[in-house]
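Following up on my earlier message about magnesium ion. Here are the inputs again, as you asked, copied directly from the submission form:
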Amino acid sequence: MSDTPQETIEALAARLDEAALNGVAVPMISIETPDLAVGDGYAIQTASMRLRFGRGERLVGMKMGLTSRAKMEQVGVHSPIYGHLTDRMQRSNGATLSHARHVHPRIEPEIAFVLDKTLRGPVTSAQAMTAVGGVAAALELIDSRYENFKFNLVDVVADNASSSKFVLGDVMRTPAEIDVSNLGMVMEVNGVPTQIGSSAAIYEHPAHSLAALANMLADRGEALHPGQIVLCGGATAAVALQPGDRVRLRVDQLGTVSVWMGA
Ligand code: OOG
Ligand code: MG
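Thanks, got it. Here's what our run produced:
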């Protein structure tokens, strides 16, 4: 652990929280405070979540990020990370989002798990899957609060892994009904297939992502709980959205999920 004072952690959390609330970019925190460790990044993330919970937001799940090669290469950070999902980040399938409320939103195709049991690491991928009640297609809207969507590992961890909004598809299958290891995923923007991939790109198997999340949380004495949603990470690079863009993701056996980026 580093010896970063708690007041520095709280001040940086407040800065990132305000940037997210206002949709206005801030400089990378690592410029001003270069000695932060990854653990400090998670402490800042946790402090920023406390600010959200204080405003009445409710935790509904967790997200993994940087679990595919394409995503790591796109942002130049090569370690999987996690973030928190709250009820106010969730939108319904087909929802309209506001471009103006975001800094520089990007969209990415994901697989979501909904847990029906407690999941506490350490676990293997197979053990992790026994806690999964449902599998769905998902879109995640990421919106780094940093200028130019540029950050290092500590910066992005502190910024709740760039998470902004997420949408689940309407089709929910049980793990017994569907093999999630290699599902085709086609993300269309304005009707044009823009990213084409497979769930196999997500940490080689989305179950591996879920287990890695449970194991990272276990290191902090935390667990996943029944009812929680887990986003396993983008299967392809994310796509920058402009006002008016319509996005539709099709996933083998999991139907479609769509959003419209309004003004
Ligand atoms: C970091 C968040 C990554 C994913 O699915 O890989 C992420 C970023 O790309 O800004 O959500
Ligand atoms: Mg993501």
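One observation from looking it over: Residues 6-22 form the longest helix (17 residues). Hope that helps, and feel free to reply on this thread.
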